[in-house]
Specification:
alpha+beta, nine-stranded antiparallel beta sheet, two-stranded antiparallel ribbon, 35% strand
Length: 264
């Protein structure tokens, strides 16, 4: 079974950079056709700021590409415009994006799942009340952790003492540790429910403020397929549990303790 059970903890020095929940649904044209004023009214207390962008998607015309010269194909391309409505909190730590095919909540400051889920209920309930999606087509919950050693009092400690070898990959080779200039690996793993997956991306990233090299662990849990509203909520709880397991599975006890865990 991927990612063994663990005791859930809260980290005082939380490495999370962002948490993103995206719920996709079959296109609701009404979202593009009118300004979401009623939706805004329901969420404005928590998300008072608003902006709107229009995304341009260019798609090939429904002809056989191989039979058309490239110059002619470019002339036949058709484009579609999708509106993306953004609502954010005054401090900028929380953001909602609404389009005709998905709703997403992004948190830049995350402490615990219960608080994130409570915040998610606000736009999710507004979506259901106003636009009445019958089903969802994809459920995703993504955690982006960035481990910055200096913030944890570990500035001189090698990554091999902080992260498990199966996460480090080639970075775990002692003869290469200081020679590697760039690192990026991607893995996709089926979860124990037999229908969901997690896509794990690991990467070295640079802190723009002080040029410190940090380690990013980006885990995107998702289920692709038709799913009811109630089952989607259960799936998100399931993803959160697996995310807690994954983070502790990925790190050593030294890093675990440096982040100051508190048992729940």
């Amino acid at each position: 079974m991927p990612f063994p059970k663990i005791n859930r903890v809260l980290y005082n020095k939380n490495p999370l950079d962002q948490v993103i929940c995206q719920l996709r649904f079959p296109p609701i044209l009404k979202i593009d056709a009118e300004i979401p004023a009623r939706f805004q009214d329901k969420i404005r207390t928590e998300f008072p700021n608003f902006s709107e962008t229009t995304e341009l998607r260019v798609e090939p015309a429904p002809l056989i590409k191989k039979q058309i010269p490239p110059d002619l194909l470019n002339q036949l391309l058709k484009s579609t415009h999708t509106k993306n409505y953004e609502f954010s909190s005054d401090d900028g730590d929380w953001k909602i994006n609404l389009t005709r095919t998905f709703i997403a909540l992004t948190a830049k400051k995350y402490d615990r799942w219960e608080n994130f889920k409570k915040k998610l209920e606000i736009p999710f309930n507004a979506l259901i009340d106003i636009y009445s999606p019958n089903i969802l087509s994809r459920v995703g919950l993504r955690y982006i952790d960035i481990f910055q050693r200096s913030n944890l009092g570990l500035g001189d400690i090698e990554w091999t003492e902080l992260l498990q070898p199966y996460i480090l990959g080639i970075l775990g080779a002692p003869e290469l540790t200081h020679a590697i200039r760039n690192l990026e690996s991607t893995y996709e793993i089926k979860l124990s429910d037999g229908e969901s997956f997690v896509k794990i991306n690991t990467k070295l990233v640079e802190n723009v403020e002080n040029s410190e090299i940090c380690f990013m662990l980006d885990s995107d849990f998702y289920y692709d397929g038709k799913i009811s509203i109630d089952d989607a909520k259960k799936k998100l709880d399931y993803f959160n549990q697996r995310a807690s397991r994954l983070i502790q599975w990925s790190i050593t006890d030294r890093l675990h303790q440096a982040m100051e865990p508190q048992k729940l």
